[in-house]
Amino acid sequence: MVRSLILLLAALLALPLSAEAQKPIKVGVPLPLSGPPALFGEPASKGAQMYVDEINAKGGVLGRRIELLIRDSKADANEAVRVSRELILKENVDFLMGTLTSAEGPAVSVVAKENKIVFIAPIPKTDQLTAADKLHPYVFRVAANTTMEGRSAAEIVAKWPVTKIATIAFDYAYGQDVTRSFVEHIKRLKPGVEIVDQQWPKLGEQDYNPFINAQMAKKPEAVVSSIWGGFFVTFSKQAKALGYFDAIKYNFIGLGEAGSPETTKSMGVDYPVGIWGNSYDAFYWEDNPGPHKDYTARLSKYLKDEYPSSWAIQGYIGMAFLVEAIKKAGSTDSDKVSKALLGLTIDTPIGKQTLREKDHQANRGQLYGKTVKDPKYNFPIMKPITYVDPTKFMD
Amino acid sequence: VPDLSFAFAQSLSGLTAAMFLFLIAAGLSLIFGVLRVLNFAHGTFYMLGAYSAYQIVQWLGTGPITFWIAALGAATAVALLGGIVERFLFQRLYGKEELYQLLFTYALVLILSDVAKIIWGTQQKSVSRPAGLTGAVSVFGATIPDYNLFIILLGPAIALVFWYVLQRTRVGRFIRAAALDRETLGALGVNVKALYTGVFMLASFLGGLGGALISPMRAIVPGMDTEVIVEAFVVVVIGGLGSFWGTFLGALIYGQVLSFGILFFPRFSIFSIFALMAAVLIIRPWGLLGRPLK
After folding, report:
1. Which residues of chain B have a Cβ shorter than 8 Å from any chain A Cβ?
2. Looking at A216-220, A292-296, B8-12, which range is the least confident one?
3. Cα torsion A149, A154, A156, A157: sign
4. Averaging pLDDT over each range in B50-59, B91-100, B241-250, which range is the top one?
5. Contact present, B261 and B217 (Cβ < 8 Å)
6. What does the mean pLDDT of chain A come to?
7. CA nearest to B17 within chain A
């Protein structure tokens, strides 16, 4: 009788402990799920979800499941801050992995700092996010940054037989920063280069004709653009009609993922084939590191899309870093996980990635290539496609 | 000093932008002039016109006249939707406080743009320029895309047809009368209800047509509705709410200020337009060609 009572008591005592072990690790994911930026936010959240589903199927991490709480940040800094606070205070999330724009990222970084919660940014590129004066122990970035993107473009354009170069970018943090990095780096690489024109349409401009005419009047030999996403579709349709790409002999490099499969697919035959573009990922990347092929096949199945999104990988890698750090730390305590993230190298579908100790920035390069028509697809692809590793020209 | 061919190219690109804005703003102005409702959802009809055109092109494939069928089909579909919205929803709002009307049309914006997102997703869509208008002509050393030229000619043509209908036909007289005094017109035996529905459908048709025709020049994305409605409002405020030729003039000014603004204030072209609007509001609050509200 006494023995069974003790057993019962022991069982009762053990119950809360095992329940604690079963409690999922909660990760808050603020990403734009409405408006034009949903184009990137939605697949990025799916990539994160796919990674989590795969990890949970293998028993989770530290014996616990991972649960994603995905919220619409509306690509708005205030809204991103609001949902992040709510995720922390009401939902008690252990970590944050999300944000898309260069306004949202730094804003949520402040929330992470206040609440001492690890925050991994998968997409925002502004240098500000991890600049020395803004850096704190809890913020990390697995996206490329504007310095890396601008310099990657300069490395490519420096090899072109051109000296008169023009730029076009949106007049806000991302556009200005990436353009400045490009200009500084190309002047170092090729001192004879002359910047003959710079156009600054407002973010979200719909009518590029006046900017294109003004730029053509300066007769550049090459152009560097960071008009991104759907805006690039609008820009290039209008530019093509004005004979802009012919005038610069297709010496044009479209940053801001103008070479992504999403963009070339939506434009099809209207795409200015022959220009250079970049992308975070490409399902047709044949020359890839081993795991990429398998990742693409899984993603294709997961999204039920023959040509899966190039943005999913950012959510996937963001979650991969977080989970590997939790494993390494053996804990979900943000202070321990943030220490584990410093200098952490993990295997990803695009090869090894490292979060630098110095500035919490991953050595995330992008895929670059000249766009060509390919008989296999009814839209252009980048071929040959090259992963530009930024390690050698990161500050 | 910009050379002449460049200035010419710049003015034509301003003219193209102006004609699109006119198509959209004309509907907005018409609804306000006759129905006395500020229809925030007008931009959404424009967006639905673009998506519908894309959809019809997808169904029909590429053919020599596919685009034109798509443009007219899309505008008609949007007009029908406008008719339904007016008949069953808007009619309850006439004479109500302006705040309710604004809130209602804004709700409509949110609902319809979510519906569009459910149907077409968040991926950007694109429509090719129509066969036969894919080239460009060179005029005074400036390159003018054929399609832009077509738009520049179409705008004034539509304006003239409109003006003719409003000024010279029986229906036009009714519409003008309805704008002035609805009750008296009704007392004279005119079916004002049907007239309102007709006006709303016509305005929606113009909005839808604007969206369909702009699709070869822009990406079709969620959010294009709210972008255009702001521009259209600026146009009607400058030209005068409810004034037909005022809208035309407002669109012309908007296009040229945007085109040439970037030459003088490269980073403040949008500022020039809003500065102009503010100036108009201060000096002539009823717009350049509008009439003071009673």
Report:
1. 2-3, 6, 9-10, 13-14, 16-17, 117, 122-126, 128-129, 136, 142-143, 145, 147-148, 216-219, 221-224, 227-228, 258-260, 262-263, 266-267, 269-270
2. B8-12
3. positive
4. B50-59
5. no
6. 92
7. A207
| Other beta carbons less than 10 A from residue B62's beta carbon | 11
Tell me, yes or no, if A213 comes closer than 8 A to chain B by beta carbon: yes
* Block residue for tokens 């296009």: B255
> Distance between CA atoms of B189 and A193, rounded to whole angstroms?
76
Place of tokens 């002359």: A194
Compute the count of residue pairs across chains A and B with CB atoms less than 8 Å apart.
107
A166 secondary structure, DSSP code: E
Q: Is residue A319 classed as helix, strand or coil in its secondary structure?
A: helix
pLDDT tens digits, one per residue of A92-118: 999 999 999 888 999 999 999 999 999
Length of chain B: 294
Count of Cβ atoms closer than 10 Å to residue A111 Cβ:
21
Residues counted in chain A: 395
pTM for the model? 0.85
Condensed to tens digits (0 to 9), the pLDDT of residues A54-78 reads 999 999 999 999 999 999 998 899 9
> Which residues of chain B lie closer than 8 angstroms to A267, CB-CB?
126
Q: Could you give the CA distance from residue B58 to residue B120 in angstroms, rounded to a whole number?
A: 12
Asked if B129's CB is within 8 angstroms of A39's CB, the reply is no
Q: Are A142 and A362 in contact (CB under 8 A)?
A: yes
User: In terms of C-beta distances under 8 Å and separation of at least 24 residues, what long-range contacts does B55-63 make, across chains too?
Assistant: B55/B120, B57/B127, B57/B128, B62/B128, B62/B131, B63/B131
- How far is CA B23 from each of CA B40, B51, B205, B236, rounded to the nearest angstrom? 16, 17, 10, 12
Q: How far is B134 from chain A (nearest CA, A)?
A: 7
The better pLDDT of the pair B111, B62 is held by: B111
Q: What is the ipTM of this complex?
A: 0.81
Name which of A200, A206, A270 is nearest B128 (Cβ-Cβ): A270
Half-sphere exposure at residue A351, Cβ-oriented, CA atoms within 13 angstroms: 15
> How do A381-388 and A366-372 pair as beta strands?
antiparallel
A331 interface with B at CB cutoff 8 Å: no
Is the sign of the CA dihedral B229, B235, B240, B246 positive or negative? negative
Burial class (CB in 10 A: 0-12, 13-18, 19+), B266: middle
